[in-house]
Write a structure and sequence with these properties.
With about 190 residues, this protein is mainly beta. The protein has a single domain (about 5-190), classed as Jelly Rolls (Sandwich). About 15% of the residues lie in helices and about 40% in strands. The protein has three helices and 14 strands. The protein has helices spanning about 25-35, 80-90, 165-170; strands at about 15-20, 40-45, 45-50, 55-60, 65, 70, 100-105, 110-115, 125-135, 135-140, 150-155, 160-165, 170-175, 185-190. The strands form four sheets. A six-stranded antiparallel sheet has the order 1-12-9-14-7-4. The longest helix is centred in the middle third of the chain and has 14 residues, at about 80-90. The relative contact order is 0.26.
Length: about 190
């Protein structure tokens, strides 16, 4: 499978490649049950606000990750997570040393507009986003030309690659929806 034969879904300034049916959706229950999920939060105007999703951080020893005021100390890769990481690496040709997992329990769980542009990800990070479980809408919009919102329905078992200058020029989110089943998103990254 050559991922780079897939059409770039961005019109300019970065790349998003989408591969449906990349892995079996059967990995959903395995990853859900073996992961030590946490509900993190951050302070907004002096008040603690919990993130509307559960998270877990897995990485090679010493690869901490900082975002939204949090310092994530890594757990080791589980056997299933390591299998998925190796599969993504074989198919994409990229090496990843970490994985941020997000567990969306229902339609109220979400991720607001953001870019994965933290310094430890490097200048033009490559992020492999593996989706397990229910279908959810993934939205992107340009940081300057805000009327450029596009939506992609991410199927269970699909892989979404974000690369090039994408994080410099585009924001992305998983919006709240009225009804949705459980979903896990695994974003494989390389921490410098």
């Amino acid at each position: 499978m050559n991922l780079f034969e897939n059409q770039n879904l961005l019109p300019y300034q970065g790349e998003i490649l989408y591969v449906p049916g990349f892995v079996s959706n059967d990995f959903f229950e395995k990853i859900k049950n073996e992961t030590l999920w946490k509900q993190e939060g951050m302070k907004i105007y002096g008040r603690e606000v919990l993130f509307p999703r559960l998270t877990a951080w897995h990485a090679e020893r010493g690869k901490t990750y900082k975002y939204s005021g949090l310092v994530n100390i890594p757990e080791e890769f589980s056997e299933n997570l390591l299998f998925l990481k190796n599969l993504v690496e074989q198919k994409t040709g990229y090496h990843f040393n970490s994985a941020l997992l997000n567990y969306y329990r229902n339609g109220n769980d979400s991720m607001g507009w953001h870019a994965d542009d933290e310094p430890e990800l490097g200048k033009n990070p490559v992020i492999a986003s593996l989706n397990l479980g229910a279908v959810r809408k993934f939205q992107i919009k340009h940081k300057v030309q805000k009327n450029t919102i596009q939506s992609i329905m991410l199927e269970g078992g699909s892989l979404l690659m974000m690369q090039g200058e994408m994080q410099h020029h585009w924001l992305h989110q998983i919006p709240k929806v009225k009804e949705a089943g459980e979903r896990i998103n695994i974003t494989f990254r390389k921490i410098l």
